Amino acid sequence: MTMSFFQYSFLVIFCYSSIVWCQSSDLEASISEDNCEFYNVLEKLIPCGKDGYVQGFAEKYCPQFLSQRNKFKNIEWNNGVHMCLEKTMLNNLRTMSEPPSCSQIYDWGFNSHSNCYLQPIADQPQISFCTLSASDIARIALIVKGGIFNRQSIVQVQQMLKFCLDHHLRNVTFT
To answer: Which of 63-77, 99-113, 146-160 has the lowest mean pLDDT?
Structure first.
């Protein structure tokens, strides 16, 4: 079956206005716990430059977490966070009827961190930032050292600490 010029033109216009869906299979295929390719594909699809989430944050920290992965006592947490961040971004992209702005991508990426740190694998609540060893938390701090001193990061760290404190208090038994 061949397309008429009208059908072809409509498809091209639709794909241009919905570029994320035309190429979301590329994004989905690039999700992996073994590399940071997802962010390269996302930046090519929606270029936001050095001030965007991908170049300004993800491309800086994703490779560092990967290179340190085998030094974590809880490798499942590290892998889970990696996958959670990428899948959350993809799910947010799929909710859009047109390509998102760079500020939307930045907000989605950044706002997904605390949830992915606290519950990276939905059906495994025991894998959480709250249950990490002191050495794993120290390793995270060393990796992100300069990146946590902005307002958004401080708020997220406070939220995570409150969540973990609540989590630990719920599990305390008094005798």
So the answer is: 146-160
Task: Express each pLDDT in 22-74 by its tens digit.
Answer: 456 788 899 999 999 999 999 999 999 999 999 988 999 999 999 999 999 99
Residue 127 domain-assigned (yes or no): yes
Count of structural domains, the chain: 1
Phi, psi of 36 (to 5 degrees): -115, 20
Expressed as residue numbers, the domain containing 158 is 9-170
- How far is the C-alpha of 86 from the C-alpha of 37, rounded, in Å? 10
4 assigned to some structural domain: no
